[in-house]
């Protein structure tokens, strides 16, 4: 029975890897001309509908959710198209290409491993770019669940969430300043947790 489970797990992993590679290839083809039109957005939506293994797994689930939100009113605005284009561009250059399906964050990022992230009555700050959506969408997800989202690091902060599309050279960027500030507060015994977008999304 153990061997059967191992074979099934290995097969599932191979299928997921191939699906991620297919998604990467589709995104690369779509953005080859540095443009993203409505027909391509709807094709990607249909493809993810037919490939639920990647549509329900990170990071495909975030792309899938993003597209569904865009198509809710059946109208694709320039802002929505541009944000999706940015998301897919970052996936091509980072998350999927380098890791196959992982969060894409550099191991040098000082993430805290925690079991659960409670949203209600906790204070959150966001830094970097997010697959989940715009910064405003991320903050709305917090407030709708009874939490508080703030723009800057402070000592009573509970969670600093780092976007999946964060540069590996985080220490030399503006959002890197937030990470460094949080680390300094941690050294002063402030109970601030630095977590990845993946950890945060799984708590929603």
* Strand tally: 4
The span between the termini is 35 Å
State the helix count: 9
Radius of gyration computed on alpha carbons: 18 Å
Summary of the model, kept short:
With 204 residues, this protein is an alpha/beta fold. The protein is built from 9 helices and 4 strands.
Protein described:
- The protein is α/β, with parallel strands linked by helices and 204 residues long.
- The protein folds into 2 domains: 98 residues, no CATH class; 81 residues, 3-Layer(aba) Sandwich (Rossmann fold), CATH 3.40.50.
- It is built from 9 helices and 4 strands; from the N terminus they run H-H-H-H-H-H-E-H-E-E-H-E-H.
- The chain has a 4-stranded parallel sheet with strand order 2-1-3-4, with helices on both faces.
- Strand 1, helix 7 and strand 2 form a beta-alpha-beta unit.
- Helix 1 packs across helix 5, helix 2 crosses helix 4 and helix 4 runs antiparallel to helix 5.
- The protein is elongated and about 50 Å long.
- About 11% of the residues have low confidence.
């Amino acid at each position: 029975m153990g061997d059967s489970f191992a074979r099934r797990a290995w097969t599932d992993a191979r299928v997921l890897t191939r699906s991620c590679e297919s998604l990467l290839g589709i995104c690369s083809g779509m953005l080859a001309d540095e443009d993203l039109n409505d027909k391509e957005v709807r094709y990607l939506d249909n493809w993810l509908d037919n490939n639920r293994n990647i549509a329900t797994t990170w990071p495909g689930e975030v792309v899938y959710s993003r597209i569904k939100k865009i198509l809710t009113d059946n109208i694709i605005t320039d802002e929505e198209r541009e944000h999706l284009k940015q998301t897919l561009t970052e996936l091509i250059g980072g998350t999927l290409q380098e890791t196959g399906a992982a969060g894409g964050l550099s191991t040098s990022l000082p993430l805290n491993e925690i079991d659960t992230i409670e949203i209600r009555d906790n204070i959150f700050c966001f830094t970097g770019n997010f697959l989940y959506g715009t910064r405003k969408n991320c903050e709305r997800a917090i407030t709708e669940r009874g939490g508080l989202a703030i723009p800057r690091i402070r000592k009573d902060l509970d969670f600093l969430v780092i976007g999946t599309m964060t540069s590996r050279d985080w220490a030399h960027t503006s959002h890197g300043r937030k990470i460094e500030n949080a680390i300094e507060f941690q050294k002063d015994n402030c109970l601030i947790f630095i977590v990845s977008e993946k950890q945060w999304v799984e708590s929603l």
